[in-house]
């Protein structure tokens, strides 16, 4: 109980002084959808992220040759994303145009561009700082586009602090229980398989979930891990069972899928891009665990016990305070 009272005080301090540091999604993926309804004319939707500081990602695009825009409307989705919808009018068919993109930052490291042409065909491409000009009817092979989804998967887990802290919490629980390396691999295998299932089911459209509720439950899962870390760590805690880890994996898989819901995957290579996106997530997850393993291995060798304990305690405070902030923020949507 003493530890619980101490962590509650620390959580309150984080809530009071660090809400900006407690934001879950500082990295986003921008998306541009172009739909041609008549020759050279149609509607576009441009979505981008707003950061913790309130700044909107400066990413921008231009159709070449230039097209006229009309009926431009801007709307907000919660506090994190802004969407611009407009009608475009071009002198030539859409497939004769290119898209020039500029302003890539951490808030928008890439731009997924999907073009739906009048003849019913679709082209999905990804612009980045090294590939700023996209021909809408490009000769670029789809396999090159598919590979880009690997990087997007890595960006998604490394840029979502709720997911990063959850993975960190699983690692810290493993250390606290002094389990074997086999147990660590098994725990993350279960988590990976579980979130891969919901990611695939949601992307394929076979199930639907309430987005706001999933976001709140993901935050609650991080808070739960922080609470477990406050216990004495001896014996088999309820959270350490694979069934519970699998349940939280299903939640996080839903979060990955929802973050890509409006960005999309190319329909003509859905399975391959979905697989690469998921592999990217696993690579990001492996990178987090490897970094933690090396860091704590060095700490075990060079630091005294009290210093190692302080590091884990501070990480737990960060997890608990941030998760409590996210949980309250996301539950307040329903109030």
Automatic annotation (TrEMBL):
The keyword Plastid does not apply. Residues 1-24 form the signal peptide. InterPro entries: Put_HupE_UreJ. The keyword Lipid metabolism does not apply. Keywords: Membrane, Signal, Transmembrane, Transmembrane helix. Pfam families: HupE_UreJ_2. The chain crosses the membrane at residues 149-173, 185-207, 213-230, 242-261, 273-298, 310-328. This is Membrane protein. It comes from Limnobacter litoralis.
């Amino acid at each position: 109980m003493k530890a619980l009272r101490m962590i509650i005080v620390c959580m309150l301090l984080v809530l009071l002084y660090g809400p900006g540091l407690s934001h879950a999604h500082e990295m986003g993926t921008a998306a541009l959808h172009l739909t041609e309804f008549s020759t050279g004319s149609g509607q576009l939707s441009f979505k981008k992220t707003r950061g913790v500081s309130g700044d909107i990602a400066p990413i921008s695009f231009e159709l070449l040759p230039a097209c006229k825009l009309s009926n431009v409307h801007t709307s907000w989705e919660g506090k994190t994303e802004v969407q611009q919808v407009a009608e475009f009018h071009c002198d030539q068919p859409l497939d004769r145009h290119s898209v020039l993109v500029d302003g890539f930052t951490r808030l928008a490291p890439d731009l997924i561009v999907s073009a739906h042409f009048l003849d019913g065909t679709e082209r999905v491409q990804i612009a980045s700082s090294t590939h700023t000009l996209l021909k809408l009817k490009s000769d670029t092979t789809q396999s090159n586009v598919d590979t880009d989804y690997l990087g997007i998967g890595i960006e998604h887990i490394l840029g979502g602090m709720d997911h990063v802290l959850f993975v960190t919490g699983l690692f810290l629980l493993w250390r606290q229980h002094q389990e074997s390396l086999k147990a660590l691999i098994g725990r993350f295998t279960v988590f990976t398989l579980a979130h891969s299932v919901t990611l695939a089911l949601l992307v394929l459209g076979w199930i639907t979930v309430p987005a706001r509720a999933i976001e709140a439950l993901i935050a609650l899962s991080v808070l739960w891990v922080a609470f477990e870390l406050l216990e004495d760590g001896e014996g088999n805690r309820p959270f350490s069972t694979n069934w519970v880890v699998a349940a939280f994996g299903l939640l996080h898989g839903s979060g990955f899928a929802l973050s890509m819901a409006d960005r999309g995957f190319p329909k003509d290579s859905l399975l391959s891009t979905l697989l690469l996106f998921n592999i990217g997530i696993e690579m990001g997850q492996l990178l987090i665990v490897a970094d933690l393993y090396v860091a704590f291995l060095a700490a075990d060798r060079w630091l005294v016990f009290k210093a190692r304990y302080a590091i884990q305690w501070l990480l737990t405070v960060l997890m608990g305070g941030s998760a409590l902030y996210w949980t309250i923020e996301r539950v307040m949507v329903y109030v």
